[in-house]
Amino acid sequence: MEIEDLSLLMLNAVNSGVAKAVAESGVITPFISKADAYRIYGRSNVDRWLTEHLIAPLSAPGKGSKRFLDRIKLDCVAAASNRHTYLPVADRKL
Description:
The chain is mainly alpha-helical. The protein has a domain at 23-81. It contains four helices and three strands. It has helices at 3-25, 34-41, 43-51, 71-80, and strands at 31-32, 58-59, 67-70. Strands 1-3-2 form a three-stranded antiparallel β-sheet.
């Protein structure tokens, strides 16, 4: 395992742990609206994750029929999606 892989793994673990701790402390809710997910992760990413069934809308307790997304699940899927490490087309070696 190279140092870059290890550092990325550690960064993802820290980010997931922090998100879980903050959600459990009640500072933020464990659920997020689809509009907020679009704003944070990008509309195309969220729509792709929904299409690929990586995430699924849930009904939040006490909120009636309004559908939400699990914030921790979103963070995990976003961390696993390494598209930010892809090279731009101009920099790719063919």
